[in-house]
Specification:
- With 286 residues, the protein is of the alpha+beta class.
- The protein has twelve helices and eight strands.
- The strands form two sheets. It has a five-stranded antiparallel β-sheet. The chain has a three-stranded antiparallel β-sheet with strand order 2-1-3, covered by helices on one side.
- The protein starts with a strand and ends in a 6-residue tail after the last helix.
């Protein structure tokens, strides 16, 4: 299955020093590609850095198009950063696609990178960053810098590889995100008053929605948020719902068409449901 990725035309035998004049040229060197696992491995083995896909021929979070890989660097320079150790991890052995020694690896100070290729690309920069942060949360010994939507990974000329051929499903990524977010839920939970009310302008609702992680709640809760917006604004709330939901193309529109005026569940879902869930995640009405 082809993976959406970007590969630099640079062939780096070592890391580029901070502040080097070549950085501008480097950031413009990434070409959007669709490669199978072997193609990505060949690029890395040849020393070509890789990153997520970007528009305008410039690597930056603002230009993010999509990301279909996640990666973790293990730099502890002990046994826990070896290919053998990492390939025996249950999660990595099941969902990892390949492991390789990095450009900074030394036999006496091992370093390795685990690549997870996804079955579907992540289309939002904020969700890519959240997915990377959640994966880091699972592996506390990994390099904490590997979570930027524009993060690139150096190739490693002549490196060692272990091919695992796993694929990380996007649905599993969403489950990890949910667990990651709920790990701090005790600090956010408050008693929700049943008679909680606030002004219901779209601006206020949009403010509340920013606190609700579309990929960090259950599917039922996700649908209830859409129902609450529809209950309050009808079809005029579609753009607001789509901007929050990060659904598949036309998914939110189809949901809106299926919602009845009287609600689809026992006990009508209202905009109060949205505010209550937002409050659970830390939102406070002003």
């Amino acid at each position: 299955m082809p993976t959406k990725i970007a590969v630099s035309t640079f062939q780096c035998m070592k890391k580029i020093p901070p502040g080097a004049p070549v950085w501008n040229q480097f950031n413009a060197s990434f070409i959007n590609r669709e490669l199978d696992t072997r193609g990505i491995v060949d690029a890395i083995y040849s020393g070509h850095p890789v990153t997520t896909q970007h528009k305008n021929n410039w690597r930056s979070s603002e230009n993010f198009i999509c990301g279909q890989h996640l990666a973790l660097d293990f730099d502890s320079e002990d046994n826990t950063s070896t290919i053998d150790y990492l390939s025996n991890d249950k999660f990595i052995s099941k969902y990892g696609t390949f492991i390789h020694t990095t450009i900074s690896h030394k036999p006496e100070a091992p370093r390795a990178r685990v690549f997870f290729l996804l079955d579907e690309p992540i289309m939002q920069a904020k969700n890519y960053t959240l997915a990377a942060a959640a994966l880091l949360w699972m592996f506390g010994t990994a390099d904490r810098q590997c979570k930027d939507a524009a993060r690139f990974f150096y190739g490693a000329p002549g490196c060692e590889f272990a091919l695992l051929f796993g694929t990380l499903p996007l649905e599993m990524v969403k489950r990890i995100i949910k667990d990651y977010l709920s790990s701090g839920a005790n600090e956010l939970k408050r008693t929700i008053k049943k008679n909680f009310t606030v002004p219901t302008s779209q601006e206020k609702v949009s403010e509340a929605l920013r606190f609700i992680p579309a990929w960090g709640i259950s599917y039922d809760e996700w649908v209830e948020v859409l129902m609450g917006i529809h209950s309050e604004f009808g079809e005029s709330g579609l753009s607001l719902a789509e901007s929050w939901a990060d659904g598949k193309p036309n998914e939110v529109k189809q949901k809106f068409k299926s919602f009845r005026e009287e609600g689809n569940t026992s006990g009508k879902i209202t905009i109060g449901t949205v505010f209550a869930l937002a409050k659970k995640y830390g939102w406070r009405a002003q």
